[in-house]
């Protein structure tokens, strides 16, 4: 069937609009950070002044007015609400791309990255909805925005039919599972990075510099470590299932389950790294810093697989990249 150019243009518009709204959310979160930091500094100054001033009892008949929510907190709540709008636009762009091409929208790197980042944000909306996790959103949006920017520029591909090698019912099965697993690992990687930051700036002992101001909005180290572990537990079987499904598809398409193609090999290496993380996380002496670095290494392997293997290295999966 011919490509519906009108629907394709609406898909692109929804994608660009999602990026704009994500940027708006990111700016709102930065404003929240700045206002919270300023408010904290003012409170410290008031405490210092109060310590050097004589006590003044409250006059009779004067009632202290209850303080409302700080402006920074209200901005943060607004940002979280607007985030749902951007996620909605993100999902609409994926759905419209599918309608425009009359196929499942996972036929090239642009569509894969769009799906993976959408999965990461959707998982974040579920797992980071509690107030104590809201401070993580600014950090999660950084890789999401970078990946979406690259998807919309360097990796962008016009709506078109897939190459013959991808005309299989295995495409929506295999690639969807892998993209969702990749999105989950993105959340896990960010959580481990923030966990390492929290170890440098423990809760309640933050320094007065910029690093301390950033860490002050984050959950405690234990919560971040637990979140990284939980998300990796979710992503590990999903991504592993994607590898197995890819092997089954390979046997159907190429006559063998495994051929050590660069894409297959690095995917397997990344999966093994995450297995090592889960093992280290349960091993005494490796649970904290060492395990977190292993988790980050797994995420780096995923990025290497996405960009270097797809774009630079030639292999049986080259039709999905730019080489």
UniProtKB/TrEMBL annotation:
One example of a Gene Ontology biological process annotation: cytochrome complex assembly
Membrane topology: Multi-pass membrane protein
Main location: membrane
Keyword Coiled coil: no
Subcellular location: Membrane
MF (Gene Ontology): heme binding
Transmembrane segments: 19-36, 79-100, 112-128, 135-157, 169-197, 227-250, 262-280, 292-313
Name this polypeptide is given: Cytochrome c biogenesis protein CcsA
Source species taxonomy: Bacteria, Bacillati, Actinomycetota, Actinomycetes, Mycobacteriales
């Amino acid at each position: 069937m011919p490509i519906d150019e009108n629907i394709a243009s609406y898909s692109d518009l929804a994608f660009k609009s999602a990026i704009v709204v994500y940027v708006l959310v990111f700016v709102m979160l930065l404003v929240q950070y700045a206002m919270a930091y300023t408010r904290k500094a003012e409170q410290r100054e008031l405490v210092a002044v109060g310590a050097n001033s004589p006590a003044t009892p409250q006059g009779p008949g004067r009632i202290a007015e209850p303080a409302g929510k700080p402006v920074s907190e209200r901005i943060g709540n607004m940002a979280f609400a607007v985030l749902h709008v951007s996620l909605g636009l993100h999902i609409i762009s994926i759905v419209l791309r599918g309608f425009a091409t009359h196929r499942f929208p996972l036929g090239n790197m642009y569509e894969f990255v769009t799906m993976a980042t959408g999965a990461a944000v959707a998982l974040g909306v579920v797992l980071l909805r509690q107030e104590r996790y809201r401070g993580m959103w600014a950090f999660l949006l950084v890789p999401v925005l970078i990946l979406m920017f690259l998807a919309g520029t360097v990796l962008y591909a016009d709506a078109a039919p897939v190459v013959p090698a991808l005309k299989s019912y295995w495409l929506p099965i295999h690639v969807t599972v892998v993209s969702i697993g990749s999105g989950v690992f993105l959340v896990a990687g960010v959580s481990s990075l923030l966990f390492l930051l929290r170890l440098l700036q423990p809760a309640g002992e933050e320094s007065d510099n910029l690093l301390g101001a950033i860490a002050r909005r984050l959950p405690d180290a234990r919560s971040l470590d637990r979140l990284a572990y939980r998300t990796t537990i979710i992503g590990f079987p999903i991504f592993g299932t994607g590898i197995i499904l890819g092997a089954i598809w390979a046997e159907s398409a190429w006559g063998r389950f495994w051929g050590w193609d660069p894409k297959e090999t690095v995917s397997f290496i990344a999966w093994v790294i995450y297995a090592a993380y889960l093992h280290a996380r349960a091993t005494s002496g490796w649970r904290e810093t060492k395990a977190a670095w292993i988790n980050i290494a797994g995420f780096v392997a995923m990025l290497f697989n996405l960009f270097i293997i797809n774009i630079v290295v030639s292999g049986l999966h080259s039709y999905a990249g730019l080489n």
